[in-house]
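Dear colleagues,

I hope this message finds you well. In preparation for our joint manuscript, I am sending the VWFA domain-containing protein (Nannocystis exedens) sequence together with its predicted structure, so that both groups work from identical material. I would be grateful if you could confirm receipt.
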Amino acid sequence: MCASALAACVDKESPGVESDTDTTASAVTVAPPATGAVDTGDEPADTSADPPDDSGGGSGAASAGGSDTSTPPETTGVDGTTGVPATGCQKVDLLFVIDNDTTMKSEQEGLVAAFPAFYDGIKSTLGMQDTHVMAVGADDGKALSNTSQCLGGGKCFCGPAPLCCANTCEGGNAETCNGLACAGLQISECASQYGAGRDYSNSGTFCNIADGRRYMLDSQPDLHATFGCAAAVGQYQTQNDKRPMFAATEAVSPAMNGVGGCDEGFLRSDALLVVVFVSDKDDTNENGGTGSPGGPQEWYDALVAAKGGNADSVVVLGLVGDGNMTGGGCDPNMAPDMEALAGGPAPRLQDFVSKFTHGAIGSICAADYGPFFSNGIAIVDQACDTFTPG
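The corresponding structure tokens are as follows:
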């Protein structure tokens, strides 16, 4: 459904990006040079609060709950007094790309805990009320195996949702799966697309994103909790690869954001794009690796192309393993760990971030991601000083 904008290539050597992360303290960040399913422990969630038919893609038309989803006036990007292009941010599109490998439980929890202050801080610092927020996983949602639990009356729950329901409902004893009726069950093609916004938690909770979208507006009821639902991408092995940068570039691609696309309307030409990614391993397709196609330069080119060629309209913040960086918070020989905050060196992801004027690397090993995101707010504010809406 969504063709990739990337072509395979041979990556270049990663530049010497340094980190000033204090290994004994919470995460402190630095802007780089401007050059089988596992049980997550979640309790089954009763999602019988009328989740929608999951057969469609795109934004949907029907309102999901009476919230104020009116569209703010469009900005033209031109100063009405001088007639010249205006600068500053009136709109921000926040994209979170979250690795859902088996070792990511603690890191996902750290992101969810840090989100409210980051989101609120951006809005208060910029003085704006027009934000899009979307969370995507690093794969296509097709797990090697599923967790499943059925209660009395054929009421079943499974993960990773929603694709797991296809297998659960075929078992013969299920009447409902994660609140969806098994009879005539239809699952959206978007549920198996790299870069599609998540509208279910891994454990099967329907996130109730307003108007059937796969991203949230500022008017979303209880937005902090809704993000926590969508960002609960789970931890599991998949039939296909974890490809965080492929997921990122697909999420902002014309096919996904155009009419009828899974993320229809998320990316706006007159909004600053802020990409946050969290992964405890590098994204590599070299030496037998099977990560995202291409390399740091191709990933950079794809994001910039999505913003009309304007690199200054993109902010990239990456929480990765930094044991290879000066002052990194992870040990140099550390590997991802299912039981603790940990991450292997990620030179390719670090190289990618270093290509952006507005970017920063933080340590995924930090006990508190708050300082990283506080610095991220300052970087977003700086980018907005010179941002010209498209």
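For the figure legend, we might mention the following. Residues 92-140+195-386 form a domain with the Rossmann fold fold (CATH 3.40.50.410). Strands lie at 92-98, 131-137, 147-150, 155-159, 176-177, 180-181, 216-217, 272-278, 314-320, 359-363.

With kind regards,
E.M.
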